[in-house]
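A.,

Following up on our hallway conversation. Structure tokens first:
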């Protein structure tokens, strides 16, 4: 089987094209696609570090460098739970909120562009297929 006819090849290249486009646009606002993704997913009431780690698919310890960078840029701040010192929530600063709104706007515009160029049937079929692939990938148990 050739690499260019596997489902995962097309998933990877499609996502890489979207991520590259997001990075080009985000760079104009002084952030990256990954930064925008984190900012979009930090809620008003704060978001636990563990939740952000799960969202990004990284370990909490690996997330520390990313959060330190965002904190250094003045986009976030962290608060430790006084009752449970192990629990830390991340909040957006005013600048972080501003960058989040820009990131949301970029995502909205890109999705509007996709919607303009895909029929309702293509859009529905793509979403259905991607959900199914996600489900199958989660269920997959390779033989030893």
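Then the amino acids I'd put at each of the 144 positions:
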């Amino acid at each position: 089987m050739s690499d260019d006819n596997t489902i995962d090849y097309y998933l990877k290249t499609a996502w890489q094209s979207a991520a590259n486009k997001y990075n080009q646009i985000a760079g104009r606002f002084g952030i990256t696609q990954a930064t925008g993704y984190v900012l979009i997913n930090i809620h008003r009431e704060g978001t636990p570090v563990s939740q952000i780690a799960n969202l990004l698919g990284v370990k909490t310890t690996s997330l520390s460098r990313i959060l330190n960078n965002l904190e250094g840029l003045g986009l976030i701040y962290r608060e430790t739970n006084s009752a449970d010192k192990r629990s830390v929530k991340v909040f957006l600063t005013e600048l972080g909120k501003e960058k989040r709104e820009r990131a949301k706007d970029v995502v909205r515009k890109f999705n509007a562009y996709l919607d303009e160029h895909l029929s309702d049937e293509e859009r529905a079929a793509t979403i259905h297929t991607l959900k199914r692939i996600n489900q199958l990938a989660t269920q997959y148990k390779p033989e030893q």
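Residues 84 and 92 are 21 Å apart (CA to CA). Curious whether your intuition agrees with the design.

B.
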